[in-house]
Amino acid sequence: MTDSEKKSEIPAARQALLRNLPGVDHLLEIAGHDLELNAAPRTLLTDCVRKTIDQLRQAILNGPPELPETALTDADILHQVRKSVQSAMALNLRRVINATGIVVHTNLGRSLLAKQALEHLQMISSRYSNLEYNLSTGKRGLRYTVVEDILCELTGAEMAMVVNNNAAAV
Known about the structure:
By secondary structure, the protein is mainly alpha-helical. The protein has 2 domains: 11-89, no CATH class; 129-170, no CATH class. The protein is built from 9 helices and 2 strands, in the order αααααααββαα. It has a two-stranded antiparallel ribbon with strand order 1-2. Helix 5 packs across helix 6 (74-89). The mean pLDDT is 86.
């Protein structure tokens, strides 16, 4: 079946709505004047515009028989793009209550950190640190030496190594 045959199967009202969908470049140009959308990374904004147009196209092609009599305005479409951008840029992690009965549940973000530890992590991670730099020798160091002595003392082991996942520990 050729494109023209496929097109002839689409009712005229739907074809008109499809023709009235704005192009990606047009919407990006308008979005450039919107402070919130203009602040989004260009690749993300372009992706959200394309996805929104695709969703509208699919809604027109596969939607219910009764269609709106007028095409969506650029403002209507940009409103949908804005929601898509906000969703993509939203912080996804949320606080939850662990009611599983498992104290250290791997699906719930591992063990909780003490307030002091969080404050120290925030202070260190917001600047450069000596994570892999030995201050006494002035040379490259190993990241796990920071906790090796503490782990040896706590466990009575002769040596210790820190890994960041179960697979690395095997």
